[in-house]
Design goal:
By secondary structure, this protein is α/β, with parallel strands linked by helices. It has one domain: Isochorismatase-like (Rossmann fold, 3-Layer(aba) Sandwich), CATH 3.40.50. It is built from seven helices and six strands.
Length: about 200
C-alpha cells in the first residue's frame, strides 16, 4: 500500500457514525461537538463525489433487544431510550443528516464495534477498488476515528484524518487524540486542505 504523500494512490472517504443517535442532544449517546461538524462533513462528501472519490458511510445499527450493544455502553443505552435501533425515531434514530444527500454510488457498511474495519467488509471492498489512502471523518474521535485510524495503518493504508470533520465531547479530548494519531503516523488536515489535496488525486 502507499503512503500519505503519494498523490497517485487511489483514495476513499470514510464517514463514521454521523447519525442522529450520536448527533442530537436528546440522545444518551450524543457526542457534544458532533453536530457542529455536519457542514464540514457535507462539504467534503460533496467534493469527494465531484472528484469520483468513493464515499463510505460506516454506521451503527443495534438490535432491538440490545444483544449486540457493547457491554460498556449497554446500561446507558437502555436508560436512554435504546437509540440507534431500526425502530428508533427522531433524535434517537439511525438516520444521517439530510445535508449528506446519499446516493446510489455510495457504500454503506454497518459496524459492530468502534473500528470501521473490525468484523466488516471494509478492507475487502477498499482493496477491490484499489484504494491505498483513506480519509477519515465523523465521530467520535477517541473511539471510532482513532480505532479506524490505527487499524488502517496496521493494514498499510495511508491514513489522513480531517480534523474539523471529526468530533469529541471536549476540545481537550479532541486535541489529545489528534496528537496521538499524528504521532503514530496519520496525517491531520482540515476540510480546506482535503479539497485542495483531492484536486491533485
Amino acid at each position: 500500500m502507499g503512503n500519505n504523500n503519494c498523490k497517485d494512490d487511489r483514495a476513499a472517504l470514510i464517514v463514521i457514525d454521523m447519525q442522529n443517535g450520536f448527533l442530537e442532544e436528546e440522545s444518551s449517546l450524543c457526542i457534544a461537538m458532533a453536530k457542529a461538524t455536519v457542514p464540514a462533513c457535507s462539504r467534503v462528501i460533496r467534493f469527494a463525489r465531484e472528484k469520483q472519490i468513493p464515499v463510505f458511510f460506516v454506521t451503527r445499527i443495534y438490535k432491538e433487544d440490545g444483544s449486540d450493544v457493547e457491554h460498556t455502553r449497554k446500561e446507558n443505552w437502555e436508560a436512554g431510550g435504546k437509540p440507534l435501533t431500526k425502530s428508533s425515531k427522531g433524535p434517537l434514530s439511525i438516520e444521517m443528516p439530510a445535508e449528506f444527500t446519499v446516493n446510489s454510488k455510495d457504500f454503506f457498511i454497518v459496524k459492530p464495534r468502534f473500528s470501521a474495519f473490525f468484523a466488516t467488509e471494509l478492507d475487502l471492498i477498499l482493496r477491490r477498488l484499489g484504494v491505498q489512502k483513506i480519509y477519515l471523518a465523523g465521530t467520535t474521535t477517541p473511539n471510532c476515528i482513532r480505532t479506524t485510524c490505527y487499524d488502517g495503518i496496521s493494514l498499510d493504508y495511508g491514513v489522513t484524518v480531517i480534523e474539523d470533520c471529526c468530533s469529541s465531547n471536549t476540545l481537550e479530548i479532541q486535541r489529545a487524540n489528534m496528537l496521538d494519531m499524528k504521532n503514530i503516523g496519520a496525517k491531520i488536515i482540515d476540510a480546506d486542505s482535503f479539497c485542495g489535496e483531492s484536486e491533485e488525486e
